[in-house]
Amino acid sequence: MAKKVSALATASAEVRGHAPERHRTLIPVQNTIGGLGEFTLITRVSAQFPTTDDVILGPGDDAAIVAAPDGRTVATTDMLVEGRHFRREWSSARDVGHRAVAQNFADIAAMGARPTTLLIGFAAPHDLPVEWAEEFTAGVRDECAVAGGTVVGGDMVGSDTLTLGITALGDLGGADPVRRNGARPGDVVACTGPLGLSAAGLALLEQGIDGPALCLSEHRRPSPPYTAGVEAARLGATAMLDISDGLVQDLGHVARASAVDIDLDSMSLRPDPELLEAVRVLGTEPGREQEVARDLMLTGGEDHALAATFPPGAELPGHWYTVGRVEQVSEEAQEGTVGDVTVDGGRPPSGGWSHFDRG
Amino acid sequence: MAKKVSALATASAEVRGHAPERHRTLIPVQNTIGGLGEFTLITRVSAQFPTTDDVILGPGDDAAIVAAPDGRTVATTDMLVEGRHFRREWSSARDVGHRAVAQNFADIAAMGARPTTLLIGFAAPHDLPVEWAEEFTAGVRDECAVAGGTVVGGDMVGSDTLTLGITALGDLGGADPVRRNGARPGDVVACTGPLGLSAAGLALLEQGIDGPALCLSEHRRPSPPYTAGVEAARLGATAMLDISDGLVQDLGHVARASAVDIDLDSMSLRPDPELLEAVRVLGTEPGREQEVARDLMLTGGEDHALAATFPPGAELPGHWYTVGRVEQVSEEAQEGTVGDVTVDGGRPPSGGWSHFDRG
């Protein structure tokens, strides 16, 4: 997947005698990425990615060349660090591959653009099993197929900490980007895609509970509504983002960038039955399941649903559900006093998490 | 510098109670990036980067938008890992910033393109001093100014291992890219930019020797000839790449991709006086300095000079120096028997490094 690559071997040789070694496993060296060698692995990995109409030049040179038919390229990057953003005990390599693609292509979709291509930086311990790298690649390939993108380049280096540096590119197809700063008083706030499931999935994993399956799978492999980004732009969305840190927190970015307030209607949030089941098995007091599930929908991150604001009369397809409204800012409002997100006119919950905290 | 950012705080909260902590230093917490908080740091950092004509939308949204006036974008990515690609003892934060930009924009130049923009993933321990992040940013800013690019986006997350994931974009300005596979028998091989200095600098650092200064500075802050990439394309270069792993090794990629052999003329390599001084202070046997310096020029990596092949009659400006020739492949040559790089018709040195190995 890479071009001029700081070889795993070369990378450690660069600071010869100083690179710490890890010997955590008893995997035969020839089955580790350090044993296989990075050029062999890169060749194997690159072969996994199909070319598409967006690819003018794929992996294998100093840089890739990606089509930008309307004279603009949308670009975003994320780092995923083992132990912070994923755990090998909780997510398979394939899951991590899916998720790495999903969270980056969701950012592309959130601009109103079509995901096209990825560059993948892969920093890994020498003793990482080749199988992990290959399964990760398969996950990337499969999620790319869902999103309509492919991989055009990358880098593979040694590191004590398994770290993925993902860059996604996208195409606006001639349309205006949907930014965060266009929300206007009176606009409706609508979402598409699941909310709260990923947070519930993580809480379940933390407690060692292996279901409901949908929550676990949405945590491991979020399913952003990729095509809804371009759709929202066409429907006249005035602002949009993807929900990575939680609906309330992320809409705060829209509210501040647009200098408006946003009020969410908690009753418009209809928890998925599996989310309700999750809050039950997580030990929620009977009778409070709906409330706790709604809190998770308001504060749980990493579902990578899309939230957008639309002009009042916009006719939205059924997969967009209205969750609130952009408020008229009073004429007396001082600078710095707008940008609030309220729920039912009041203070939002501080975090769905807190319900499950174990001292 | 980032948009929707997996917050340092959020990132560790995602796997609550599991993220290992490091307490290596006694820096007051408010002076660490964990104490300052990622949003504050990102705001400070983003303010450092000027906008340019290539930036349609800079940091602060889900993704950036970069101009691609000829309908194509050149893209490359590299990971830099502390302890593998740089050491905080040997390189200042500012040096690392310079180098991160240089090695990526060199890849853009090596396609015959003009460097335009960067996305920077920054994964760092919570106890990293804020000053390190700010000095790194200053280095990035200053090297961008040299190359003519700027930063349009990024991500900031927590990690036990300081890791930079850099993606560079570039513009071909309507020209054909210069790939690795176009070298033809009879072409001359020419370079521009220093060779061997970075490798000598690293060897000096490994031995705790603090000069010659040029070698150390070229290791810490390589100075790729950014504009020479577009120039080479205009001069009719048939193949090009930047020298990251060593002249012989990197030209091997050109030779194999072009299905030709390449012979280098060692006498055409004129070691810089400071390189000769370096090999002396590194303990080279008197009388062998020229030979050892040439070996370093043939095998030392990370200078990020450009090497290109040009048609036989090409008139090259003085900063391009001829180092060899693309060989006529005999008609009897079997598949798999071309792609060799020789020096003076024979086997190339195995590595300038080996001269200084200390048991």
TrEMBL record, chains A, B:
Give the first-level EC class, as a single word: transferase
State the residue spans of region: Disordered: 331-359
Biased-composition ranges, Low complexity, are 336-346
- Residue sites binding Mg(2+) 2 per the record: D78, D107
Copy the pathway line from the protein's UniProt record.
Cofactor biosynthesis; thiamine diphosphate biosynthesis; thiamine diphosphate from thiamine phosphate: step 1/1
Query: Which InterPro entries is this protein grouped with?
Result: PurM-like_C_dom, PurM-like_C_sf, PurM-like_N, PurM-like_N_sf, ThiL-like
**Binding site residues for Mg(2+) 4:** D62, T76, D107
State its Enzyme Commission number(s).
2.7.4.16
Query: Residue ranges of the PurM-like N-terminal domain?
Result: 60-170
Listed Pfam families: AIRS, AIRS_C
Sequence ranges assigned to domain PurM-like C-terminal in this UniProt record = 184-327
A Gene Ontology BP annotation from the UniProt entry:
thiamine biosynthetic process
Q: Which reaction does it catalyse?
A: thiamine phosphate + ATP = thiamine diphosphate + ADP
- Where Mg(2+) 5 binds, per the record, is at D245
Instruction: Tell me which family the UniProt entry assigns to this protein.
Output: Belongs to the thiamine-monophosphate kinase family.
Q: What else is known?
A: Reaction mechanism of ThiL seems to utilize a direct, inline transfer of the gamma-phosphate of ATP to TMP rather than a phosphorylated enzyme intermediate.
Task performed by this protein? Catalyzes the ATP-dependent phosphorylation of thiamine-monophosphate (TMP) to form thiamine-pyrophosphate (TPP), the active form of vitamin B1.
Output this protein's name. Thiamine-monophosphate kinase
Organism listed in the record: Nocardiopsis kunsanensis
According to the entry, what is the taxonomic lineage of the organism?
Answer: Bacteria, Bacillati, Actinomycetota, Actinomycetes, Streptosporangiales
Gene name of the record:
thiL
